[in-house]
Design brief:
The complex is a heterodimer of chains A (203) and B (480). By secondary structure, chain A is an alpha/beta fold. Chain A is built from eight helices and seven strands, in the order E-H-H-E-H-E-H-E-H-E-E-E-H-H-H. Chain A is globular and about 60 Å long. Chain B contains 16 helices and 21 strands. Classes of the chains: A alpha/beta (203), B alpha/beta (480). Bound molecules: iron/sulfur cluster.
């Protein structure tokens, strides 16, 4: 995972509540055995016409003025549904570095943080302000300071957002969490010594 | 059982018993995982990561694999083989076989007599037991909570963590008691309970929480019914749902392949009896429903929270005071091509799907078969019955259920996820309506452009016969 300290980028909004992971990436794209090329499948069924290839000109991500946006503003409860980590992989592949909403589904948030995609929780008023900004002026940019946990709006207003210390450390330093767990092997061994195995799949 | 004299919930007891390292300001808790279920779709990138780093699977003997999501459910050929037509699916299945064999993980391959949907085979084999921590790269891992296990879905990075270390980093969730008092009426099932709960709290209502389902109606459910309820906890936003283990639980587990036996069984029962929440244990939230007020439920929209009693009318966006909800409802009705105020009863349908980890166990199939026996699936309807596992299929065939379905005009398939996720070619055509016993009615979930009404196996069977959305109680009343 690469270090993520600052994000400076233009915004695009999909003001729909409860965007589930089947919309972020439909299941038929889950037959891959790697993470490559998923960006083009992001929001596939909204983004392309019946043939799955011709861009749907009405969908916001296809509009020329929003090309290159790296911060997605979404409706409430983003990322509900399936546990597929293909959802953050697809969003990263499509060029996003952060998603802003009032709430994220638990597994999506976990998956995103493990891949360097930043889920930013804001209040409903800030979310509405961002929706309006994105619509009125597609060149609107915001900046994010991960260390300070702040989102800066074009009017200079700074909005704080929650981020647990551990995930923050991992993002800032570009470390993944597996290394941390591997280093706890002694503790795991002593746990296993104290607690008999509950079930043996090979038995 | 108390901790420093403080009464604890079922969830807290299981959580506390699996702490390798306590949660602190700097880091989440490190939780030990007793059982890790893996399948072909969410594991390949995790195994690749192990390879890149030269790591082993720490406890292959606490890991089990099965093929389910991208497997075909078409009947076997003359050689007894289920052919995989899709090249990408075939590659994914081959990759999974190699990964499991390279790392020594026992695995049920396509065609194996024990293969099936991951959440069906865990309980079926007696692997799922009270008090355990169970994870899988699949959000419906919540199913296993029916046994009083703490079971939840994880992402692929976390699959890698568990493969390599048998542990997981977790922030402690909050708890929510979901009380279902009273008794269910005739024709009303576990599926209707959970659809009613989700339509009440909304699909984000349980975010950050673990549910504990309690009350007379839950106690009165079979293990299969409890699994149906826990299965859809994630649809209410909760990663896990649990039911306190009791004699119903123990009787289900007794004698299964991986169940403890002899003196181990007695010891296990003793420890399982200590798991239920203590009197006075405090939940962070609580809601109560009355089972006797429930009737069969159906969804009308594009998420599982958009559900209603089957005789109700589709809500009117104009009446919605919350602007965002109004927009969502508008969008859902447009996708579903439904009018505000329209009744779903009598709405013509094209497909009925009985299957998925929510409702593909033997009791689901028995219920649907009993209903459909002596009746015919409407000519305009394609009905698919997909057993949750090869063992369920075998059991159903030994009881003649396959014949009942076939004679009625339904398709009887091999085991797998099938049209629940539409990865394997079993899918709706654009614009088609389905009554499905699965768990998600998201746009395109059952095939691009397809429209899903979620309901119980009984409602699905009744609707197949009528060719339209039907309240099973009406036909049941005709029987008696
Ligand atoms: S049956 Fe459906 S919900 Fe269950 S594991 Fe398979 S795809 Fe997921």
């Amino acid at each position: 995972m690469e270090k993520l300290k600052h994000i400076q980028g233009s915004i695009v909004s999909i003001p729909v509540n409860d965007i589930d992971t089947d919309q972020i990436i439909p299941a038929r794209f889950l037959k891959v055995t790697d993470k490559d090329g998923l960006g083009k499948a992001a929001f596939c069924d909204w983004r392309y016409q019946e043939d799955g290839e011709t861009p749907n000109p009405d969908f916001v991500l296809n509009k020329p003025e929003y090309q290159g946006a790296s911060v997605l503003i979404a409706g409430n409860n983003f990322g509900c549904g399936s546990s597929r980590e293909h959802a953050p992989w697809a969003l990263l592949g499509a060029g996003f570095k952060a998603v802003i909403s009032t709430e994220f589904a638990d597994i999506f948030r976990n998956n995103s943080l493990k891949n360097g995609l930043l889920p930013i929780v804001v209040d409903a008023e800030t979310q509405q302000q961002l929706f309006s900004l994105a619509e009125e002026d597609p060149s609107t940019t915001v900046s994010v300071n991960v260390e300070a946990q702040t989102l800066t709006l074009p009017d200079g207003r700074e909005v704080g957002f929650p981020l647990d210390g551990f995930s923050k450390y991992c993002l800032l330093n570009g470390v993944d969490q597996l290394g941390y767990l591997l280093a706890l092997d002694d503790a795991v061994q002593s746990f296993e010594a104290d607690n008999p195995q509950r079930v043996a799949t090979k038995a | 059982m108390t901790n420093n004299g403080r009464p604890r919930t079922l969830f807290e007891k299981v959580w506390d018993a699996h702490i390798v390292r306590e949660q602190s300001d700097d880091s989440p808790a490190v939780l030990y995982i007793d059982l890790h279920l893996v399948h072909e779709v969410t594991s390949p990138q995790a195994f690749s990561m192990l390879r890149e780093r030269g790591l082993q699977v720490r406890r292959p003997d606490q890991t089990i694999g099965t093929m389910d999501h991208s497997t075909p459910t078409t009947p076997r050929n003359e050689l007894g083989i289920i052919p995989v037509a899709d090249a990408m699916a075939a590659k994914q299945l081959d990759t999974f076989t190699k990964n499991c064999s390279d790392y020594g993980i026992p695995m049920y391959a396509l065609g194996d007599e024990h293969q099936g949907i991951v959440h069906v085979i865990g309980p079926e084999k007696g692997l799922t037991q009270p008090g355990m921590t169970i994870v899988c790269g699949d959000s419906h891992t919540s199913t296993h909570g029916a046994f009083g296990a703490l079971a939840f879905g994880i992402g692929t990075s976390e699959v890698g963590h568990v493969l390599a270390t048998q542990t997981l980093l977790q922030n402690k969730p909050r708890t929510m008691a979901v009380n279902v008092d009273g008794r269910l009426g005739e024709g009303v099932t576990a599926k209707d309970i959970i659809l009613a709960i989700i339509s009440r709290i909304g699909i984000g209502g349980g975010t950050g929480h673990v549910f504990e389902y309690r009350g007379e109606a839950i106690r009165g459910l079979s293990m299969e019914g409890r699994m149906t309820v826990c299965n859809m906890s994630i649809e209410g936003g909760a990663r896990a749902g649990m039911v306190a283990p009791d004699d119903t639980t123990f009787e289900y587990i007794r004698g299964r392949r991986h169940a403890p036996s002899g003196a181990d069984w007695d010891a296990a029962i003793a420890s399982w009896r200590a798991l239920p929440s203590d009197d006075g244990a405090v939940f962070d939230k609580e809601i109560t429903l009355r089972a006797d007020e429930l009737i069969p439920m159906i969804t009308y929209g594009t998420n599982p929270g958009m559900g209603m009693p089957i005789d109700s009318a589709v809500p009117t966006p104009e009446n919605e005071t919350d602007f965002n909800k109004k927009i969502a409802l508008d969008k859902a009705l447009a996708y579903m091509d439904l009018r505000p105020g329209q009744k779903l009863l009598g709405k013509a349908i094209d497909v009925v799907f009985i299957g998925s980890c929510t409702n593909s166990r033997i009791s689901d199939l028995r219920q649907a078969a009993e209903f459909i026996q002596g009746r015919k699936v409407a000519d305009s309807v394609r009905m698919m019955v997909v057993p949750g596992s090869q063992q369920v299929k075998k059991q159903a065939e030994s009881e003649g259920l396959d014949l009942i379905f076939r004679e009625a005009g339904a398709e009887w398939r091999e085991a797998g996820c099938s049209m629940c996720i539409a990865m394997n070619g079993d899918q709706l055509q654009p614009g088609q309506y389905a009554v499905s016993t699965s768990n998600r009615n998201f746009e395109g979930r059952q095939g691009k452009g397809g429209r899903t009404f979620l309901a119980s196996p009984l409602t699905a069977a009744a609707s197949a016969v009528a060719g339209a959305v039907t309240d099973p109680r009406v036909m049941l009343a005709g029987l008696s």
